[in-house]
Amino acid sequence: MDALRVNSTLQGGKYRIIERLGQGNFGITYLAEDPSLEGKVAIKELFFKGDCCRDDSTCNVMTIPAWCNREIVERSKQKFIKEARTIFSLNHPNIVRILDVFEENGTAYYVMEYIEGESLGDMVKRRGAIPEAEALGYVKDVASALEYIHSKNINHLDIKPGNLMKGNEDGRIIVIDFGVAKQYDAVTSEGTTTTPVGISHGYSPVEQYSKNGVQTFSPQSDVYALAATLFKLLTGNTPPEAIEILSEGLPVDELQEKHISRHVISAIAMAMKGRHERTQSVAEFISNLSGDATVVITDPHPDDSDSTEVGLERKEIKAKSAKTFMVGGVSFDMVWVEGGTFHMGATSEQSENAWDDENPVHSVTLSGYYIGKTEVTQALWKTVMGSNPSSFKGDNLPVECVSWDDCQEFIRKLSALTGQNFRLPTEAEWEFACRGGNNSRGYKYSGSNDIDSVAWYKDNSGGNTHPVATKLSNELGICDMSGNVWEWCSDWYDKYSSGLLVNPKGPYDGTTHVDRGGSWISDAGHCRSSIRNYCSPVARYCYLGLRLSL
């Protein structure tokens, strides 16, 4: 058996088991009677599902087999007790009160007040999607609790509808089950625990999937779970896995179908991004839920240091400054490129076999500008244009099969929706950004000399495009400027001129427009930073897309 039998007692008869309420990967929760209080309590028992069993005669919890994982289980038990005692000290109207902590039966327990009511998970099962105003009220209750525990350097790490109770007495939402919560050192922000990593599919952010879980204090991990919870309340559907959202995007159409306010959709989408791009605090998330801005200007990473997104086999450079736009529930990021002077064309690292039109190498001075962090996705194109011309379908795949003329129409409509003056980058702007701007390290490709780390091209693409931002970014935090799809530039195509040029825009007229960067069908040589290509303005190919500038 796993669970304690009905009428079993703990602490010498102090608590009598009435029934099992639920069981997860790391614990079993019971409804129990406390005669001293003349009432009911909930008891959480540390029990590793699949790694533990119970002796029928003694009720002792043992590892399976006896010699396996004993040390891990014992260490986790001690940490479980330590953390329960920390939570014992919490005092907040939206957090369940812990009444007792003890060891028994070879494992550990904590006793909580029993909340008469139903979980938000059960409520959604019973009612379906919850009206927006009601759902926001519940989320604000949870947010208050999270802000309180975050002030004490505690992450809950398991916020989900099933762990949020609505009390029958006053209707308050109570956060329950701190079984995988962690407290972090107030100075170093490093985790002081080794509590097992908890994963709630659809609600856990990508960093929680790593072997050791969230090792540094990060309120944004709970922010993600809170936003995912709100998604569930508003739609009735569990969100996709975090890794799927990173690759395919949040299914905002499910929110739109429920006629959810645009600013609420925007807030949820921002809070469910990758760890370093996501809304950073609960207070910011709540503020975003009440706002109506379509543009959010952020400067979250004042340095250029590398950061690793746990759970993905990629590393991205933190963008120095960015603008995030939201259109119809679809967000996209623009990265600031500080003005500067660079050598454009077949510089030494670009290969001795550079094409003739990559010469002569010449100096270009540019003013600062914004450029898309990624190619324009199919999700954004569909939202603006109402259709998707791409050969390879997927919301987070780059849009392709779009002509230069199509791009101008898309840009006109997008600018009207946002009040911004979007455009295609000039060829010089494109190459400067591709090389890493003023932070350039002189790589052959955009962000590396190792093409496989930064580009989808002929040798690794499998014959199709791939979701944007799944390869290493370059020195500015920009992705996919080598490979995936060729990208239209604003310039008419012609041979280079020599001498110093300031903000060049190419020839006044021509018959073909420049496209840059190589694609999924290109060999490595055609993905270099200086490579040039050109097409008719009406041409549409399954390897040709666009990137925005501003």
Distinctive features:
6-stranded antiparallel sheet; Phosphorylase Kinase, domain 1; 12 helices; Transferase(Phosphotransferase), domain 1; alpha+beta; 3 domains; 4-stranded antiparallel sheet; 26 strands; elongated; paralog of FGE (formylglycine-generating enzyme); single chain; 550 residues
Topology:
Layout: E1 9-10, E2 15-23, E3 27-34, E4 39-46, E5 52-54, E6 61-63, H1 70-88, E7 98-104, E8 107-113, E9 117-119, H2 120-127, H3 132-150, E10 154-155, E11 164-167, E12 173-175, E13 182-183, H4 219-235, H5 242-248, H6 252-257, H7 262-271, H8 282-290, E14 295-298, E15 306-308, E16 315-317, E17 322-327, E18 330-337, E19 340-344, E20 362-366, E21 369-372, H9 378-385, H10 404-418, H11 427-434, H12 451-454, E22 486-492, E23 501-502, E24 513-516, E25 532-535, E26 544-546
Parallel strand pairs: 20-23, 22-26
Antiparallel strand pairs: 1-2, 2-3, 3-4, 4-8, 5-6, 7-8, 9-11, 10-13, 11-12, 14-17, 15-16, 17-18, 18-21, 19-20, 22-24, 24-25
Return the CATH architecture of the largest domain: Alpha-Beta Complex
CATH class of the largest domain: Alpha Beta
The strand order across the widest sheet is 1-2-3-4-8-7
Q: Return the domain count.
A: 3
Looking at CATH, the homologous superfamily of the largest domain is: paralog of FGE (formylglycine-generating enzyme)
Rg from Cα: 27 Å
Query: Helicity level, as a percent range?
Result: 10-25%
Q: Give the biggest sheet.
A: 6 strands, antiparallel
Q: CA-to-CA gap between the ends?
A: 64 Å
The overall strand count is 26
- What is the number of helices? 12
